[in-house]
Amino acid sequence: MTEKMPKDPVMLLSYVNTQLRDFYGTLQEFCAAADVDEAGLREKLAGIDYQYNEAANRFV
Questions:
Q1: Cα four-point dihedral sign 8, 40, 23, 51
Q2: Is 4 within the bounds of a domain?
Q3: CA 10, CA 25: separation in Å to the nearest integer?
């Protein structure tokens, strides 16, 4: 993950959902732009019981 991404999972959740809401139409677009490993991001947020919801374009 990029250096400006929060390390704390809860802060990461907030950051990613904000980015998705404000700037990106899909998780794939966000990951490509931010140079983030999508599988790693999903795994980290799954660790706090959040899954990506494609219809809502956010982790819920």
A1: negative
A2: no
A3: 22
